[in-house]
Write a structure and sequence with these properties.
35% of the residues lie in helices and 21% in strands. It is of the alpha+beta class and 505 residues long. GO terms for molecular function: extracellular ligand-gated monoatomic ion channel activity; transmembrane signaling receptor activity.
Length: 505
């Protein structure tokens, strides 16, 4: 009996729980579906109604609109166009082509009273329009006066947007890459700084029709730069920019234009390691010749020739990537300073050799000193007696001169001085006094010296070498100090002429 009651109670409890769960799950499910259906149907109806209202508004605005005429034409007032740039990337700066490029968001904003939305039943303050809307409204013909090649990005679609406000203000933004010309001064290359300008304005509308002004964006006015993205700019570093006030530039008439100037500093590390330091080391290597003995002429000349060829190779390598300009650059001047240092050392080597020869000649006695023998040294005859000749000799019967015989310095005989040889210095004594080799030979015989009479093979330091060891580095160091002061410490001056823009048209 108890078993039957327990079984019945368990059955009743399970049945109740099953019915309760089915009720709750079914109830929630039906409630959610009903809410979703109600929200989706109402949102779709509202979106359809908003789209119809926007379409009707734009059709009403563009009904009598003519995009061929600028805003404010009937009133006679110029149309004001506000410009701002957001530069994302900068470079490259090409000094070979005198150009620079950058990527930016180029925004233009103007007000067109014909595009005002008067019956705004939607409640929207701004409308984002498609690119097809640009072909149906007026837009300024802005271009870059000093542009070389600029284009709008079209991947994956044309990067442009148009926003229309209810008061008729139009914002036209596009992502473009600008490549502009830059007049660079290469007189201080590679220690130079460059200032590149960007000028933009209207191509067809004069200053009485369209006026350009910089647009203020909070603390920035007209131009904003993303410095983190341009930190890795090759060869140059962007140090800053300067915005100029709006001005009218002359082409054929007066046109309103805006100008911004970018300032660049060239990186010097590449040129220091590849040109300046090697040239200085070559000059230092040439000074090793000052510590070499002056008798080693071949070694000294070999060092000079090797260093000159090395400087020539460095000079040719520097011209491969350098700008082709008419005036000498700072790098050219430095290489020529190294050339002059070599030209100073080469005459010094030659002068040391000449000084050595002069010292040897001074030590040779010019007059004969009495030798150790018992009597005077005989004077052998150098040349035989010269026969008397006529002024005009016959070709068939020429007069034969006496044969010249070889003499020996050990031969003993006297020279017979006749009347014909009385005024001619052709005896051995005169020959010994005037010929350096004969004097040296006689002097060695008198002093019984066989080889190296003056210590030529010994290592001797010249007086010119002792002076050049201190004078050459001093002159070279002072020249480099003057070079640094002239090309680095001297302030940079950038000259801009607004009338030169005629050549860009």
């Amino acid at each position: 009996m108890h078993i039957f009651l327990w079984t019945f109670q368990i059955f009743v409890v399970l049945k109740f729980v099953e019915n309760f769960e089915d009720f709750r799950i079914e109830h929630v499910k039906l409630r959610k579906n009903r809410v979703r259906r109600e929200i989706s149907s109402s949102s779709v109806d509202r979106r359809v109604q908003v789209a119809r209202n926007v379409t009707n508004l734009l059709n009403d605005v563009l009904l009598d609109y003519d995009h061929n005429f600028r805003p404010g034409l009937n009133s006679g007032r110029p149309t004001k166009v506000y410009i701002d740039l957001f530069i994302r990337t900068m470079g490259p700066v090409a000094d070979l082509g005198n150009t620079y490029s950058f990527n930016c968001y180029f925004r233009q904003k103007w007000k067109d009273d014909r595009l005002q939305i008067r019956n705004n039943s939607i409640g929207l303050r701004q409308l984002s329009l498609s690119n097809a809307m640009l072909d149906r409204i007026w837009k300024p013909d802005t271009y870059f006066w000093n542009g070389a090649r600029s284009y709008v990005h079209t991947i994956t679609t044309p990067n442009r947007l148009v926003r229309l406000e209810t008061d008729g203000s139009v914002l036209y933004s596009s992502r473009i890459t600008v490549k502009a010309k830059c007049s660079m001064d290469m007189s201080r290359y590679p220690l130079d700084k460059q200032a590149c300008r960007l000028i933009l304005g209207s191509y067809a509308y004069t200053a009485q029709e369209v006026q350009y002004e910089w647009r203020k964006m909070g603390e920035d006015r007209g131009v904003k730069i993303d410095y983190e993205s341009i930190a890795d700019l090759p060869q140059f570093s962007l140090t800053g920019f300067k915005i100029q006030e709006p001005a009218n530039f002359t082409r054929d008439l007066q046109y309103s234009a805006l100008e911004v100037r970018f300032f660049f500093d060239r990186h010097f590390g590449y040129f220091l390691m590849n040109f300046y330091v090697p040239c200085a080391l070559v000059v230092l290597l040439l000074w090793v010749a000052f510590f070499t003995k002056r008798e080693a002429t071949a070694e000294r000349i070999g060092i000079g020739i090797t260093n000159v060829l090395t400087i020539v190779l460095i000079s040719l390598d520097s011209k491969t990537d350098s700008p082709k300009v008419d005036s000498p650059t700072a790098l050219d001047v430095y290489i020529w300073i190294c050339y002059v240092a070599h030209l100073f050392c080469d005459p010094e080597i030659q002068e040391v050799e000449r000084e050595r020869i002069r010292q040897i000649i001074k030590q040779i006695p010019k007059k004969k000193k009495p030798g150790p023998g018992p009597g005077p040294r005989p004077r052998p005859e150098v040349l035989g007696p010269t026969p008397r000749r006529n002024r005009f000799m016959s070709v068939r019967n020429p007069v034969k001169s006496a044969p010249i015989r070889k003499i020996s310095h050990m031969e003993k005989f006297e020279v017979q001085d006749g009347p014909e040889e009385s005024g001619r210095p052709e005896n051995l004594e005169f020959f010994r006094q005037e010929n350096v080799g004969w004097r040296l030979y006689t002097w060695m015989m008198d002093h019984n010296i066989k080889t190296d009479p003056f210590g030529v093979a010994q290592n001797s330091i010249s007086r010119i070498d002792k002076i050049s060891v201190f004078l050459a580095p001093l002159i070279f160091g002072l020249t480099l100090v003057f070079y640094y002061d002239f090309y680095v410490n001297r302030p940079f001056e950038f000259n801009f002429d607004n009338n030169n823009f005629t050549r860009y048209i």
